[in-house]
Amino acid sequence: MNKPEANSAVGDRPEGGVEQEPIYVTRTFLPPREEYLHWLDKAYASHVLTNNGPIHKELEESLRQRFQVPHLKLMANGTLALQLAIRALGLKGKVITTPFSYVATTSAILWEGCEPVFVDIDPKTCCIDPNLIEAAITPDTSAILATHVYGIPCDVEAINTIAKKHGLKVIYDAAHAFDVQYKGRSILQWGDASTLSFHATKLFHTVEGGAVVLHDAEADHRLRLLRSFGHVHDEHFTLGMNAKMSEVHAAMGMAILPHMDRIMAERKQLTLRYDELLAGAPVERPVVPAHTDYNYAYYPVILRDLAIREALLSALAAEGIHGRRYFFPSLDTLPYVQSKPCPNSHALADRTICLPLFNGMEVDTQQRIAQGIQSFFKLALQH
User: Fold this and answer.
1) Is residue 2 part of a domain?
2) Which domain holds residue 231?
3) Rounded to whole angstroms, how far apart are CA atoms 25 and 309?
Protein backbone atom coordinates (compact mmCIF):
# COMPACT_ATOMS: atom_id res chain seq x y z
CA MET A 1 0.00 0.00 0.00
CA ASN A 2 1.32 3.43 -0.87
CA LYS A 3 1.43 6.00 1.90
CA PRO A 4 -1.82 8.02 1.81
CA GLU A 5 -1.43 11.72 1.15
CA ALA A 6 -1.27 13.73 4.35
CA ASN A 7 -3.92 16.14 3.11
CA SER A 8 -6.37 13.45 2.03
CA ALA A 9 -9.94 14.32 2.96
CA VAL A 10 -11.32 12.28 5.83
CA GLY A 11 -14.90 13.46 5.65
CA ASP A 12 -17.17 15.88 3.88
CA ARG A 13 -16.92 19.49 4.94
CA PRO A 14 -20.09 21.25 6.00
CA GLU A 15 -22.09 22.98 3.31
CA GLY A 16 -20.72 26.36 2.38
CA GLY A 17 -17.24 25.40 3.55
CA VAL A 18 -17.90 26.46 7.15
CA GLU A 19 -15.14 25.14 9.42
CA GLN A 20 -16.27 22.94 12.27
CA GLU A 21 -15.06 23.46 15.82
CA PRO A 22 -11.72 21.74 16.48
CA ILE A 23 -11.78 18.55 18.54
CA TYR A 24 -8.86 18.08 20.90
CA VAL A 25 -7.68 14.86 22.49
CA THR A 26 -8.91 15.89 25.92
CA ARG A 27 -11.04 18.51 27.63
CA THR A 28 -10.77 19.15 31.33
CA PHE A 29 -13.82 18.25 33.38
CA LEU A 30 -15.01 21.19 35.47
CA PRO A 31 -17.59 20.86 38.23
CA PRO A 32 -20.45 23.35 38.45
CA ARG A 33 -19.00 26.72 39.49
CA GLU A 34 -21.16 26.91 42.60
CA GLU A 35 -19.75 23.60 43.83
CA TYR A 36 -16.18 24.79 43.46
CA LEU A 37 -17.05 28.15 45.01
CA HIS A 38 -18.55 26.31 48.00
CA TRP A 39 -15.09 24.94 48.77
CA LEU A 40 -13.34 28.21 48.00
CA ASP A 41 -15.68 29.93 50.46
CA LYS A 42 -14.38 27.53 53.11
CA ALA A 43 -10.81 28.58 52.30
CA TYR A 44 -11.78 32.27 52.49
CA ALA A 45 -13.49 31.70 55.83
CA SER A 46 -10.49 29.91 57.32
CA HIS A 47 -7.86 32.26 55.81
CA VAL A 48 -5.76 29.10 55.36
CA LEU A 49 -4.57 28.68 51.80
CA THR A 50 -1.71 26.20 52.18
CA ASN A 51 0.40 24.31 54.75
CA ASN A 52 -1.79 21.25 55.20
CA GLY A 53 -5.04 23.17 55.59
CA PRO A 54 -8.48 21.71 56.39
CA ILE A 55 -9.54 21.14 52.75
CA HIS A 56 -6.21 19.51 52.00
CA LYS A 57 -6.68 17.17 54.97
CA GLU A 58 -10.24 16.33 53.95
CA LEU A 59 -9.25 15.48 50.37
CA GLU A 60 -6.30 13.43 51.56
CA GLU A 61 -8.48 11.37 53.91
CA SER A 62 -11.31 11.05 51.38
CA LEU A 63 -8.93 9.58 48.81
CA ARG A 64 -7.24 7.32 51.35
CA GLN A 65 -10.59 5.85 52.29
CA ARG A 66 -11.73 5.60 48.67
CA PHE A 67 -8.69 3.50 47.77
CA GLN A 68 -8.59 1.65 51.12
CA VAL A 69 -4.86 2.27 51.55
CA PRO A 70 -3.02 2.88 54.84
CA HIS A 71 -1.17 6.06 53.88
CA LEU A 72 -1.76 8.71 51.20
CA LYS A 73 -0.07 12.08 50.92
CA LEU A 74 -1.10 14.81 48.49
CA MET A 75 1.60 16.45 46.36
CA ALA A 76 1.90 19.60 44.28
CA ASN A 77 2.15 17.49 41.11
CA GLY A 78 2.66 13.95 39.88
CA THR A 79 6.34 14.37 39.06
CA LEU A 80 7.18 15.39 42.61
CA ALA A 81 5.12 12.40 43.74
CA LEU A 82 7.46 10.10 41.80
CA GLN A 83 10.60 11.82 43.03
CA LEU A 84 9.62 11.79 46.68
CA ALA A 85 8.40 8.19 46.54
CA ILE A 86 11.85 7.19 45.28
CA ARG A 87 13.50 9.20 48.04
CA ALA A 88 11.13 8.04 50.79
CA LEU A 89 11.94 4.42 49.95
CA GLY A 90 15.68 5.19 49.98
CA LEU A 91 16.34 3.89 46.47
CA LYS A 92 19.90 3.86 45.17
CA GLY A 93 21.72 2.50 42.15
CA LYS A 94 19.70 0.98 39.31
CA VAL A 95 15.94 1.06 38.93
CA ILE A 96 14.31 -1.22 36.36
CA THR A 97 11.63 0.69 34.50
CA THR A 98 9.51 0.91 31.38
CA PRO A 99 10.40 2.80 28.19
CA PHE A 100 6.70 3.26 27.32
CA SER A 101 5.50 6.00 29.65
CA TYR A 102 5.55 9.76 30.03
CA VAL A 103 9.04 11.23 30.39
CA ALA A 104 8.46 12.07 34.09
CA THR A 105 8.76 8.36 34.95
CA THR A 106 12.36 8.37 33.73
CA SER A 107 13.28 11.91 34.74
CA ALA A 108 12.24 11.26 38.35
CA ILE A 109 14.63 8.31 38.54
CA LEU A 110 17.48 10.40 37.13
CA TRP A 111 16.65 13.44 39.27
CA GLU A 112 16.98 11.31 42.40
CA GLY A 113 20.43 10.10 41.37
CA CYS A 114 19.42 6.62 40.26
CA GLU A 115 20.04 4.91 36.93
CA PRO A 116 17.06 3.82 34.81
CA VAL A 117 17.38 0.35 33.31
CA PHE A 118 14.81 -0.13 30.58
CA VAL A 119 12.99 -3.41 30.11
CA ASP A 120 10.77 -3.87 27.07
CA ILE A 121 6.98 -4.03 27.23
CA ASP A 122 4.27 -6.56 26.58
CA PRO A 123 2.84 -5.39 23.22
CA LYS A 124 -0.66 -6.56 24.23
CA THR A 125 -1.00 -4.46 27.40
CA CYS A 126 1.70 -1.82 26.71
CA CYS A 127 2.98 -2.38 30.27
CA ILE A 128 6.41 -3.64 31.31
CA ASP A 129 6.97 -7.31 30.44
CA PRO A 130 7.66 -9.18 33.71
CA ASN A 131 9.23 -12.05 31.76
CA LEU A 132 12.15 -9.75 30.92
CA ILE A 133 12.74 -8.22 34.34
CA GLU A 134 14.89 -10.87 36.02
CA ALA A 135 17.49 -10.81 33.25
CA ALA A 136 18.00 -7.09 33.96
CA ILE A 137 18.56 -7.46 37.73
CA THR A 138 22.11 -6.92 39.02
CA PRO A 139 23.59 -6.49 42.53
CA ASP A 140 23.14 -2.71 42.01
CA THR A 141 19.39 -2.98 41.36
CA SER A 142 17.23 -1.54 44.14
CA ALA A 143 13.75 -1.34 42.65
CA ILE A 144 11.25 -1.77 39.86
CA LEU A 145 9.30 1.30 38.73
CA ALA A 146 6.49 0.25 36.39
CA THR A 147 3.65 2.23 34.80
CA HIS A 148 0.00 1.20 34.59
CA VAL A 149 -0.14 2.45 30.99
CA TYR A 150 -3.46 4.11 30.06
CA GLY A 151 -4.68 2.80 33.43
CA ILE A 152 -4.18 -0.82 32.27
CA PRO A 153 -2.77 -2.77 35.23
CA CYS A 154 0.72 -4.19 35.08
CA ASP A 155 1.11 -7.87 35.87
CA VAL A 156 1.30 -6.99 39.55
CA GLU A 157 1.34 -10.58 40.74
CA ALA A 158 4.36 -11.53 38.63
CA ILE A 159 6.19 -8.34 39.58
CA ASN A 160 5.46 -8.96 43.25
CA THR A 161 6.95 -12.46 43.01
CA ILE A 162 10.12 -11.16 41.32
CA ALA A 163 10.54 -8.31 43.81
CA LYS A 164 10.22 -10.58 46.83
CA LYS A 165 12.65 -13.10 45.35
CA HIS A 166 15.33 -10.45 44.79
CA GLY A 167 14.61 -8.10 47.70
CA LEU A 168 13.53 -5.19 45.49
CA LYS A 169 11.16 -2.31 46.17
CA VAL A 170 8.29 -1.72 43.74
CA ILE A 171 6.83 1.65 42.76
CA TYR A 172 3.90 1.91 40.39
CA ASP A 173 3.42 5.04 38.33
CA ALA A 174 -0.37 5.09 38.55
CA ALA A 175 -0.86 8.51 36.96
CA HIS A 176 -3.56 7.02 34.70
CA ALA A 177 -4.99 4.51 37.16
CA PHE A 178 -7.38 6.50 39.37
CA ASP A 179 -10.08 4.10 40.65
CA VAL A 180 -8.78 1.12 38.65
CA GLN A 181 -9.35 -2.16 40.49
CA TYR A 182 -7.82 -5.58 39.96
CA LYS A 183 -9.47 -8.66 41.46
CA GLY A 184 -11.72 -6.46 43.58
CA ARG A 185 -8.88 -4.38 45.07
CA SER A 186 -7.65 -0.93 44.22
CA ILE A 187 -4.58 -1.21 42.01
CA LEU A 188 -2.96 1.21 44.47
CA GLN A 189 -2.84 -1.55 47.07
CA TRP A 190 -0.02 -3.28 45.18
CA GLY A 191 3.70 -2.55 45.49
CA ASP A 192 5.57 -0.56 48.11
CA ALA A 193 4.35 2.74 46.65
CA SER A 194 2.07 4.10 43.97
CA THR A 195 2.04 7.63 42.60
CA LEU A 196 -0.87 9.53 41.11
CA SER A 197 -1.13 12.59 38.91
CA PHE A 198 -3.99 15.03 39.36
CA HIS A 199 -3.05 17.22 36.40
CA ALA A 200 -5.95 18.94 34.63
CA THR A 201 -5.76 16.43 31.77
CA LYS A 202 -6.31 13.47 34.07
CA LEU A 203 -9.51 11.60 34.89
CA PHE A 204 -9.59 13.12 38.40
CA HIS A 205 -7.76 16.41 38.81
CA THR A 206 -6.93 19.26 41.15
CA VAL A 207 -5.74 21.48 38.25
CA GLU A 208 -2.18 20.60 39.28
CA GLY A 209 -1.44 17.96 41.86
CA GLY A 210 -0.70 14.37 42.69
CA ALA A 211 -0.37 11.89 45.53
CA VAL A 212 1.84 9.14 46.90
CA VAL A 213 0.42 5.96 48.40
CA LEU A 214 2.70 4.08 50.80
CA HIS A 215 2.17 0.93 52.85
CA ASP A 216 4.92 1.42 55.42
CA ALA A 217 4.43 3.89 58.28
CA GLU A 218 8.11 4.84 58.53
CA ALA A 219 8.34 5.56 54.80
CA ASP A 220 5.18 7.64 55.05
CA HIS A 221 6.71 9.64 57.93
CA ARG A 222 9.80 10.31 55.81
CA LEU A 223 7.57 11.35 52.94
CA ARG A 224 5.74 13.89 55.09
CA LEU A 225 9.06 15.45 56.08
CA LEU A 226 10.36 15.42 52.51
CA ARG A 227 7.19 17.17 51.33
CA SER A 228 7.51 20.03 53.82
CA PHE A 229 11.15 21.19 53.92
CA GLY A 230 12.21 18.38 56.27
CA HIS A 231 10.98 20.04 59.44
CA VAL A 232 8.05 20.06 61.84
CA HIS A 233 7.49 23.49 63.40
CA ASP A 234 11.03 24.64 64.29
CA GLU A 235 12.59 21.20 64.59
CA HIS A 236 14.54 20.13 61.50
CA PHE A 237 15.07 16.44 60.70
CA THR A 238 16.17 16.00 57.08
CA LEU A 239 16.65 17.66 53.73
CA GLY A 240 13.27 18.38 52.19
CA MET A 241 11.48 20.44 49.59
CA ASN A 242 8.17 22.21 49.13
CA ALA A 243 5.85 19.71 47.47
CA LYS A 244 2.62 20.62 49.29
CA MET A 245 -0.76 21.03 47.61
CA SER A 246 -2.58 24.30 48.23
CA GLU A 247 -6.12 24.67 49.54
CA VAL A 248 -7.23 26.17 46.21
CA HIS A 249 -6.12 23.03 44.38
CA ALA A 250 -7.55 20.71 47.02
CA ALA A 251 -10.87 22.59 46.73
CA MET A 252 -11.08 21.61 43.05
CA GLY A 253 -10.48 18.01 43.99
CA MET A 254 -13.23 18.05 46.61
CA ALA A 255 -15.65 19.59 44.10
CA ILE A 256 -14.87 16.94 41.46
CA LEU A 257 -14.75 13.86 43.70
CA PRO A 258 -18.57 13.41 44.01
CA HIS A 259 -18.79 13.31 40.19
CA MET A 260 -16.23 10.53 39.66
CA ASP A 261 -18.60 7.58 39.37
CA ARG A 262 -20.66 9.43 36.76
CA ILE A 263 -17.52 10.54 34.93
CA MET A 264 -16.26 6.98 34.55
CA ALA A 265 -19.68 5.60 33.61
CA GLU A 266 -19.95 8.18 30.84
CA ARG A 267 -16.44 7.42 29.59
CA LYS A 268 -17.29 3.73 29.48
CA GLN A 269 -20.23 4.50 27.20
CA LEU A 270 -18.02 6.69 25.00
CA THR A 271 -15.50 3.85 24.75
CA LEU A 272 -18.15 1.31 23.80
CA ARG A 273 -19.50 3.69 21.16
CA TYR A 274 -16.01 4.13 19.69
CA ASP A 275 -15.72 0.34 19.54
CA GLU A 276 -18.94 0.19 17.51
CA LEU A 277 -18.13 3.12 15.24
CA LEU A 278 -14.64 1.85 14.45
CA ALA A 279 -15.70 -1.76 13.82
CA GLY A 280 -13.92 -3.07 10.73
CA ALA A 281 -11.23 -0.39 10.72
CA PRO A 282 -7.66 -1.79 10.66
CA VAL A 283 -6.79 -0.66 14.18
CA GLU A 284 -5.84 -2.64 17.28
CA ARG A 285 -6.57 -1.88 20.91
CA PRO A 286 -4.47 -2.65 24.00
CA VAL A 287 -5.71 -5.57 26.05
CA VAL A 288 -7.14 -4.92 29.51
CA PRO A 289 -6.36 -7.94 31.73
CA ALA A 290 -9.16 -10.11 33.07
CA HIS A 291 -10.54 -9.27 36.52
CA THR A 292 -9.92 -5.54 35.93
CA ASP A 293 -12.45 -2.81 36.70
CA TYR A 294 -11.17 -0.26 34.23
CA ASN A 295 -11.53 3.53 34.42
CA TYR A 296 -11.69 4.31 30.66
CA ALA A 297 -9.15 7.08 31.00
CA TYR A 298 -7.95 6.95 27.36
CA TYR A 299 -8.86 5.51 23.97
CA PRO A 300 -5.58 4.43 22.35
CA VAL A 301 -5.51 2.77 18.93
CA ILE A 302 -2.55 0.92 17.43
CA LEU A 303 -1.99 1.30 13.70
CA ARG A 304 -0.09 -0.81 11.19
CA ASP A 305 3.04 1.31 10.96
CA LEU A 306 4.57 4.75 11.39
CA ALA A 307 3.62 5.95 7.90
CA ILE A 308 -0.06 5.17 8.45
CA ARG A 309 0.05 6.78 11.87
CA GLU A 310 1.54 10.04 10.60
CA ALA A 311 -0.74 10.18 7.56
CA LEU A 312 -3.84 9.57 9.68
CA LEU A 313 -2.86 12.23 12.21
CA SER A 314 -2.26 14.74 9.43
CA ALA A 315 -5.50 13.93 7.66
CA LEU A 316 -7.52 14.20 10.86
CA ALA A 317 -5.79 17.45 11.84
CA ALA A 318 -6.73 18.93 8.47
CA GLU A 319 -10.33 18.36 9.51
CA GLY A 320 -9.83 19.88 12.96
CA ILE A 321 -9.55 16.52 14.78
CA HIS A 322 -6.46 16.33 16.99
CA GLY A 323 -5.25 12.96 18.20
CA ARG A 324 -1.99 12.57 20.11
CA ARG A 325 1.08 10.38 19.77
CA TYR A 326 1.00 8.98 23.27
CA PHE A 327 3.49 7.81 24.32
CA PHE A 328 6.18 9.17 22.06
CA PRO A 329 9.11 8.77 21.85
CA SER A 330 10.14 5.50 23.47
CA LEU A 331 12.03 6.68 26.55
CA ASP A 332 15.06 4.47 25.93
CA THR A 333 15.82 6.81 23.00
CA LEU A 334 16.09 9.96 25.14
CA PRO A 335 19.39 11.77 24.43
CA TYR A 336 20.43 11.77 28.10
CA VAL A 337 20.07 8.03 28.80
CA GLN A 338 21.92 4.94 27.66
CA SER A 339 19.97 1.77 26.99
CA LYS A 340 19.71 -1.37 24.97
CA PRO A 341 16.95 -1.06 22.34
CA CYS A 342 13.42 -1.99 23.35
CA PRO A 343 11.81 -3.02 20.04
CA ASN A 344 8.25 -3.52 21.30
CA SER A 345 8.26 -0.07 22.88
CA HIS A 346 9.73 1.47 19.71
CA ALA A 347 7.03 -0.15 17.59
CA LEU A 348 4.17 1.02 19.79
CA ALA A 349 5.60 4.53 20.10
CA ASP A 350 5.60 4.68 16.30
CA ARG A 351 2.16 3.17 15.81
CA THR A 352 -0.07 4.39 18.65
CA ILE A 353 -2.33 7.41 18.99
CA CYS A 354 -4.94 8.38 21.54
CA LEU A 355 -8.22 9.56 20.09
CA PRO A 356 -10.21 12.41 21.62
CA LEU A 357 -12.11 11.25 24.69
CA PHE A 358 -13.66 13.54 27.26
CA ASN A 359 -16.79 13.96 29.33
CA GLY A 360 -19.51 15.84 27.54
CA MET A 361 -18.45 14.52 24.13
CA GLU A 362 -21.55 14.43 21.97
CA VAL A 363 -22.59 11.57 19.72
CA ASP A 364 -22.12 13.58 16.54
CA THR A 365 -18.58 14.51 17.64
CA GLN A 366 -17.66 10.85 18.01
CA GLN A 367 -19.33 10.06 14.71
CA ARG A 368 -17.31 12.81 13.04
CA ILE A 369 -14.07 11.34 14.39
CA ALA A 370 -14.96 7.76 13.49
CA GLN A 371 -16.17 8.75 10.04
CA GLY A 372 -12.89 10.53 9.48
CA ILE A 373 -10.93 7.42 10.40
CA GLN A 374 -13.09 5.06 8.37
CA SER A 375 -12.93 7.39 5.34
CA PHE A 376 -9.16 7.63 5.67
CA PHE A 377 -8.73 3.87 5.51
CA LYS A 378 -11.23 3.52 2.68
CA LEU A 379 -9.22 6.03 0.68
CA ALA A 380 -5.93 4.38 1.66
CA LEU A 381 -7.12 1.02 0.32
CA GLN A 382 -7.75 2.62 -3.05
CA HIS A 383 -4.07 3.54 -3.44
Assistant:
1) no
2) 33-258
3) 15
